Amino acid sequence: MVIDLRSDTVTKPTEEMRKAAYEAEVGDDVYVEDPTVRKLEEMAAEMLGKEEALFVTSGTQGNQMAVLTHCVPGNEILLEEESHIFYYEGGAISAFAGVQPRTIKGTRGAMSPTMIETAIRGDDIHLPETGLICVENTHNRAGGAIVPLENMARIYDVATSNNIPVHLDGARLFNAAVGLGCSLKDFTQYTTTVQVCLSKGLGAPVGSIIAGDKNFISRARKWRKRLGGGLRQVGIIAAPGIVALSSMIDRLSEDHDKAKKLSDGISMIQGLTVVNQVDTNIVLVDVAKKGVTSVEFIEKLKEHGILAVPFGQTVVRFTTHYDVTNEQIESALNILNQC
Ligand code: TLP
Question: Which residues does a 6 A CB cutoff place in the pocket of ligand 1?
């Protein structure tokens, strides 16, 4: 039996999701005629406190559409040094939107509002225009850290007083909301647009949502079509997304408990050091004291049936999710103890 802790993306759709997909009422979504997609989008817009929402194929597509819609080529965008948009999206912001990234080093994923203010470009013929500020919550490479609401509020303040939009990569925003015991709107009130993933902790097989005002969504819809993301009877895959939003959010606290249990156990193992404060479902472990690299350690774990991913030269990421049980966490700890 493999214990798959590589990502919360590996979950399989639940029975209820499969049934919803089978029974979904569908239509041609390029004509905005798929009732299941419309239902999902309306539900998401309401939950995120935005005028409209759009169903997109992936988190990466949603983030890229936001950059494409907010910016023009030659703009500069401000984003955290290890943000997913900068680090893991294949240089797409430069390849597609033609924007120049300017990275800001954060603390547990949170960028300093003062550093952002200083980085915003003035009105000078030599300079690029600052077109967008991107924030990420929870912050993946900061180990699922919850970026504080107060930090988001201050960044939004700086942004609005400079007329710059704020896009939130909320691939794991549900984890942040459950972790703080607050609503999604508590975060999204400090954003112009937001992207949330249905296919991570919530367990849907496919899809993300982007949300913003009517004007943004109608322009983003055009970008989605340009990118080949206008889909037809897509209610089939939107239906599991409705199940995800209706019944899979509150249970994320179980994933957080499993991550806590894993990190507490790992802290007791000699040679392994948990390097993040575990706010949500991600545990980062430094294996340097074992005298191996992260890749070597992961290879060894794989031989014992545990899957994880490298997160640097000597850091390994473990992610808990719906399809990993408490018993599996205990077995993983026993195996880690022997590796
Ligand atoms: N993250 C994946 C990998 O791409 C690293 C993972 O396993 O964590 N924003 C954030 C913060 C993400 O963590 C991810 C996926 C995305 C965007 C992209 O979502 P998808 O995979 O749907 O394109």
Answer: 7, 9, 58-60, 63, 84, 88, 136, 140, 169, 171, 197, 199, 208
| Residue owning tokens 């205990």 | 330
| Contact between residue 54 and residue 211 where contact means Cβ atoms under 8 Å apart | yes
Q: Where are the domains of the chain?
A: 14-247, 251-338
Q: How far is ligand 1, taken at its centre, from the CA of residue 244, in Å? A: 17
Predicted pLDDT of residue 308: 98
Ligand 1 atom closest to Cα of residue 88: 4
Name which residue sits closest to atom 3 of ligand 1, judged by CA: 88
User: Which residue's entry shows tokens 């988001």?
Assistant: 152
**Can you tell me the distance from the alpha carbon of 149 to that of 170, in angstroms, rounded to the nearest whole number?**
13
* Res. 66 pLDDT band, cuts 50 70 90: very high
Strands 282-286 and 273-274: antiparallel
Nearest ligand 1 atom to alpha carbon 7: 7
- Asked if residue 339 has pLDDT above 90, the reply is no
What is the Cα–Cα distance from 320 to 297, expressed in whole angstroms?
19
Q: What is the pLDDT of residues 44-54, one digit of tens each?
A: 999 999 999 99
> Mutation test of ligand 1: which of 140, 210, 282, 316 has the most ligand atoms closer than 8 Å to its C-beta?
140
CB atoms closer than 10 angstroms to residue 200: 26
Fold of 251-338: Aspartate Aminotransferase, domain 1 (3.90.1150)
d(CA 169, CA 160): 18
CATH code of the domain made up of 14-247: 3.40.640.10
- d(C-alpha 212, C-alpha 217), whole Å: 6
